[in-house]
Design brief:
With 180 residues, the protein is mostly helical. Helices cover 71% and strands 0% of the residues. It is built from 9 helices and no strands. Helix 5 runs antiparallel to helix 6 and helix 6 crosses helix 8. The longest helix has 26 residues. It is flat and about 60 Å long.
Length: 180
């Protein structure tokens, strides 16, 4: 594999570098990182299902994933069929963002940070961002129909996802304030 070039963003490499630095360069370290990500995905599925519908939906979603999706169930004690892949951690980031967006306080910046983390794992994970904005329109309390508010919320989430846009957004707001 040394002659192949891996075009992955740095997220997955940073996760495993931190884990290996902390727990040692052992195969079991990678297994536990992947397993903990799967457990976090299970828990977050439960939270999102609970918030979208009711507790029984959250519990059902978590149980279905736990019994059919957890790699140790599907592949036995050996765990994951493929290890050290970004797709193991992307659901954690996206579901964490969904849980934040479905909470009463809706910490948009933190949800954006979760989307940014997903993008550090794989840029295509940002496809969930517009879907979350659409879902926010359907949740209580409903957003007013004015597009500027939706744009403002979208900018806020994106600001968390992209530090560059955070600075651009701030500069734009300051320029608007000076122009007024």
């Amino acid at each position: 594999y040394r002659d192949l070039w891996d075009q992955k963003p740095p997220g997955i490499h940073l996760i495993y570098r931190a884990a290996i630095a902390r727990f040692g360069a052992h195969e079991v370290t990678v297994f536990w990182m992947d397993f903990l990500a799967a457990v976090a995905t299970t828990a977050l599925l439960g939270v999102v299902g609970w918030r979208l519908a009711r507790p029984s939906v959250g519990l059902a979603a978590a149980m279905i994933y736990a019994f059919l999706g957890l790699p140790t169930v599907r592949y036995g004690a050996g765990g994951f069929l493929e290890r050290a892949v970004p797709e193991t951690f992307i659901p954690v980031c996206v579901l964490a963002a969904a849980a934040l967006l479905l909470s009463r306080r809706r910490p948009l910046f933190l949800a954006g940070v979760c989307f940014g983390a997903a993008a550090l794992l794989k840029p295509t994970a940002l496809i969930y961002w517009p879907a979350m904005l659409i879902a926010m329109r359907r949740e209580e309390p409903p957003l007013p129909p004015s597009p500027p508010l939706l744009k403002e919320r979208g900018d806020s989430i994106f600001s968390g996802a992209d530090p560059v846009s955070t600075n651009v957004t701030r500069a734009t707001r300051k320029a608007r304030a000076r122009a007024s």
